[in-house]
Structures are given as C-alpha cells and as structure tokens.
Q: What sequence folds into this?
C-alpha cells in the first residue's frame, strides 16, 4: 500500500510525514472561488457531484497533498434530517433553530439518504480521478457540534443555546444526540463503501464542554459512532478531532477507538506527545494564523510541530481550518519545508 497517510493510520511512522490541511478546498484558492460562483449556492456546490469533485481535487492538483478531503459540509446531515439549512455569503450557516423538546421529538427516525446520494456520487467520481498515493478522506460532524448548530440555528461564540438546552432538557437533548449518532453511522459507512479510505469526525465545539458533559456529549456518542461504523465496515479507519479538548484529550484517546487523534493549536505539544501520541497516531497542529502570517513565525511553527511529533506516527495538519486570507505561496512554502 503506497498511501502514506493511510499507513500512519495503521500506526506507522513515516520519515516524511504525510500532510493535508483542514478546509484545504476553500476560499483562499482562486479556482475554488471561480467554481463556487459557477455553482450558485453553497449547498448547490455540495450537491453537484461534478463541481464538488472538482473542488475536492483542486488542492491536490495545485499542491500535491497526501490527503484529499471530500468537499461537503457537516450541516448536510441536519439538511437530510429535514431541517432548513442556508449558507449566506460572509455570514456563515443559518438553520431553523430548535427551541423546544417537541421539535426534537418530531425529528425523523432516520436521515434521508436519497438527499445525500450526490455526496456518494461525488466520492465515486473523485475516487476515479485521484492519484493512487493520495488518501481519500470522508467526514461528518460529531453529534455535539452538529447539535450546537441545530439548536442555536447558527454559530455562536460559546454555543450557549445548546449547552442551556442540554441542561434544561437532558432527555430531549439525549434523543437529538442519539438521532445524530445513528445518522452519522449510516452516513460514514456509506461514504466508506462509496470509496473513501478513511473518515474524520469533526468535533469543533468539544472544547466548551465541562468534563462531565465532555464525557457525555463528546466521548460517549463519538465512541458509539466508531463502534457502529466498524460493525458495518470492520476495518474502517477513523480520525477523531475534538477541538479544544485540552486536559480531556487523554480520556478521549483512551475511550474512543479512533485510529488517530487530531490536535488543535492550543494544546501544549509536550503534553500531547506524552499523553496522546504514546497511545495512538496524532494529526496537527500548526496555528492557522502562523500559516497566514508566513515568514519567521511560519518556519518556527513548522519546526516546533515536526520536532514535537516527527519521531512517532504523525500526520502534518493545521490545528483548525485554513483561513480564507491565507496566501497560496505560504501553503507552497509549508509543503516544501515539510518535504525538505
Ligand atoms: O476542504 C475541506 O476541508 C472540505 C470541506 C469542508 C467544509 N466544511 C467546506 C466549507 C469541511 C470538512 C467542513 C467542515 C465543517 N463545516 C465544520 C467542522 C470543521 C471546522 O472548520 O470547524 C464546521 C463547524 C462546519 C460548518 C460551517 N460551514 C461553518 C461554520 C461555515 C461558515 C464559516 C466559513 O468558513 O465560511 C461553513 C461554510 C463552509 N464549509 C465553507 C466551506 C469551503 C465556506 C462557504 C463558502 O464557500 O461560501
């Protein structure tokens, strides 16, 4: 098997670590902006297999990353659960918020996989065009993170609406999470069968939960998804990314049977090396702002990441998504440095 990134997910250390960037297909690329304009709405882009395949491949062609991530969004799952989802330019996602336990109770027992069929079609198209040494990643949002958007109807600085809802209506919230667990299992298993090599579970908002709630709403549902996916696809390779988990990271790494753990840029690298990479491969964790800044800050950041994690199983990435203002030249420089 000549896919370097996939080999790391099997626990191997690579002399030159494989590299990809979260949100590598996006607005920092002129060719993405052009295709985005052609597509019309953002969801139209996600659900047009030819265009979604095209933007998935754009960063591979331009930079030669070791991993390609399916172009879609975590919020297609609420969409397939019958919730209204809109993306307005410059505003971020807008959903019809969930204010009461009754709305949760009225959610369908299953997502509508027909609505997600274009995603599986995109995967088949990309798989046919991807260089053989590039690992193809699918993904979903973790139930907690998806629930925060479904409850508030948008991103908020601390996702207080979802935290409040979970305290006030724990049974209804548990049902919402369970609904998302089952939807995510079916969604990821179908992505794997359609042709992705591995999947990543994004828990962007894990870090705002207190420890008990972190166990209940981040660790437990994610572990359930991992087991459920492997019941259908036994050798499924899975990366977990609990952003902001901090001191809860070792618990996550122990309790969730993911093959690798994604690290954000805030975590102390020595702690992550000793407490996480000792247990399993890690991915991360350059500050996206260091990549945006470039120059000495970027070089120092790259060195620090390689120095901390380079002697174990490791996938180079950012600690969160690439920012739209990032110069393309800085990404080129990053790859040259890592592969030098
Ligand atoms: O290149 C890739 O990584 C693949 C595609 C991808 C997108 N979103 C495309 C996108 C992936 C993996 C995501 C995940 C995602 N979506 C997450 C988890 C990771 C993270 O970044 O925290 C979350 C929380 C979302 C929800 C979401 N989608 C938000 C909050 C926003 C608005 C913020 C923003 O960056 O504009 C989106 C929109 C979105 N998803 C864009 C892209 C390229 C920008 C929309 C546009 O082109 O107009």
A:
């Amino acid at each position: 098997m000549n896919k370097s990134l996939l080999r790391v997910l099997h626990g191997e250390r690579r002399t030159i670590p494989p590299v990809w960037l979260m949100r590598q297909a996006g607005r920092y690329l002129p060719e993405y902006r052009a295709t985005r304009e052609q597509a019309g709405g953002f969801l139209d882009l996600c659900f047009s297999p030819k265009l979604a395949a095209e933007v998935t491949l754009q960063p591979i062609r331009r930079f030669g990353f070791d991993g390609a991530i399916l172009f879609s969004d975590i919020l297609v799952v609420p969409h397939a659960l019958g919730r209204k989802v809109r993306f307005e330019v410059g505003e971020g996602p807008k959903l019809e918020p969930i204010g009461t336990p009754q709305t949760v109770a009225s959610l369908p027992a299953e997502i509508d996989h027909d609505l997600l069929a274009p995603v599986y079609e995109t995967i088949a198209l990309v798989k046919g065009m991807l260089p053989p040494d590039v690992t193809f990643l699918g993904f979903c949002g973790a139930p907690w993170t998806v629930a925060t958007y479904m409850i508030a109807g948008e991103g908020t600085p601390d996702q207080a609406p979802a935290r409040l809802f979970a305290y006030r209506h724990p049974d209804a919230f548990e049902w919402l999470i369970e609904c998302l667990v089952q939807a995510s299992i079916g969604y990821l298993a179908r992505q794997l069968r359609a042709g992705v090599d591995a999947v990543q579970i994004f828990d962007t908002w894990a870090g705002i939960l207190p420890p008990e709630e972190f166990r209940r709403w981040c660790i437990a549902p994610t572990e359930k998804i991992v087991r459920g996916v492997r019941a259908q696809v036994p050798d499924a390779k899975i990366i977990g990314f609990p952003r902001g988990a901090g001191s809860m990271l070792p618990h996550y790494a122990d309790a969730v049977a993911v093959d690798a753990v994604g690290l954000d840029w805030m975590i102390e690298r020595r702690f992550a090396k000793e407490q996480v990479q000792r247990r399993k491969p890690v991915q991360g964790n350059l500050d996206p702002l260091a990549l945006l800044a470039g120059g000495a800050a970027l070089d120092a950041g790259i060195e620090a990441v390689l120095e901390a994690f380079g002697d174990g199983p490791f996938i180079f990435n950012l600690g969160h998504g690439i920012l739209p203002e990032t110069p393309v030249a800085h990404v080129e420089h990053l790859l040259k440095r890592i592969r030098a």
Notes: The chain has a mean pLDDT of 97.
